[in-house]
Amino acid sequence: MRIEDTLTGVMLETAKTTSLVFVILLGAAMLTAAFRAFGGEELVRDFLTGLPGGFWIQFLIVMLVIFLLGFFLDFIEIAVVVVPIVAPILLADPTANITAVWLGVMIGLNIQTSFLTPPFGFALFYLRGVAPAAVKTMQIYKGVVAFITLQLIALLIVGLYPPLVNYLPNRSSYLSETSPPPRNPRLQYCMDDYVLAGMQSDGARTNNAIAALAALDLSSLPDDLARDLRRAADDAGGFSDAVAQIPVTIAAVQAAAGDYRPVQEQVRSIEKRVRDLQADLDDVNREMGRVREAISEERGRRMEIRKAELEAAIAALQAQIPENWDPVHDTFKELTDAEETARVTMRRIGDSSFEAVAEVVAVLNGTPAFNALGEPLRGLRAAVETGEPEATAAALDELATQFRDVEGAGDIRSDLGAARRVLERTPDDREKALEEFDSALAEYEAQATWRAAATTAVLPGLQAFLNDTKTTLGVRFEPSLTRDQGIFLASCTAKHRSLSLSF
Hints:
Layout: H1 6-37, H2 40-49, H3 55-69, H4 75-91, H5 100-116, H6 122-130, H7 137-143, H8 145-160, H9 163-174, H10 188-215, H11 223-237, H12 239-291, H13 297-319, H14 325-365, H15 367-372, H16 374-379, H17 381-386, H18 389-404, H19 410-425, H20 430-457, H21 459-469, H22 483-493
Helix pairs in contact: 1-4, 3-4, 3-5, 5-8, 9-22, 10-11, 10-21, 10-22, 11-14, 12-13, 12-14, 14-21, 18-19, 19-20
């Protein structure tokens, strides 16, 4: 640090290099902003989306352009100028439904390959600068062929098998402390697959648990809780049928997709061109209406001609739509709607039945805390009858707060709150306050009786039901993903699933 002022020199050189990089970034950001402000992004989007062949042709064109730019530009310029323009276009395509991580890795591999490729590869010139004079440039070019081949093979493998890229980031996310909950909308398709796999491998356990729930003796429970459990058992009884219906609807959609997809692609392509022409027609109409009095006769005539051309082009395109498109689309939509209905039905049955049982279990698990409040509640009656009103009201409020934390004790808390309000507003009306308090005490004694009986007779069966069905009916009820769910979802979501048939 002290010899020949080395640290100062290092810091100055670092500051210069860092400033150079940030100047490049600022310039690239300004160029990108100007390019977008003047409509360049729309031109690129129109060009790419107008290409025949769908996503993969668009993707290959973008990769070729980036590959050629890698001959002349550093990766920073490509990353901050080109990628922000083309990436949103590719990511928005539902036919591929690719992930940003996969696209970034593919672009990175592509740029790396470009840097190795003669005659302009940056890496070759770096090597030329450090290699001895005995090593010829042509030898470097020949030596790099094997590495270019490996790069191209890696590009092909990653392109054909996206889980190689997507799996590890997904797994890290789903197994972390900040993993999304099972009810996350983006995970529902794969969560359905998880349930299907669970029912196929261990469906007997779930069915036996549902049968055991239906056979439970619920006479010890109050009518409302018993009614909820019976309804949950009835709903859960249809779970297996709902699960079995999903593969049937999926197979129907896949069987019809082969004939439907070409027609859909043709119609959607026509409709896109119609939308583009309609936008131009709207611009012409808007301009004609805005400046009709100010335009010259010649210009007005040209605009009328342009308007007629656009209307004729739109009519010609609309005439190309097959006459049977509407019934074909409606028929296929019925199949996709049936699949979605089957999935929603399965989720609804699982959620409602599992949650109903979990709520009763939460009530019975709160019995020890409930019992602990019995003596304080009974001991407060004398204070309500003859005690100092303000102090008694405070004690009632504190006890009501404790009952609030006990599942199923809402009625007791309400009666205690009513007694407190009577003492605060009309301290002399002890009879009314005592009536409200006795109502709370009677409710407590009744609950204590059925809680004691149900804890022994019903709670073990309900807990067994929850434990046996937590990976099927209760899969969406967990607050966060389990390890098994996270690993399964990491694999499922790592694949690119086309959404084009839904549009």
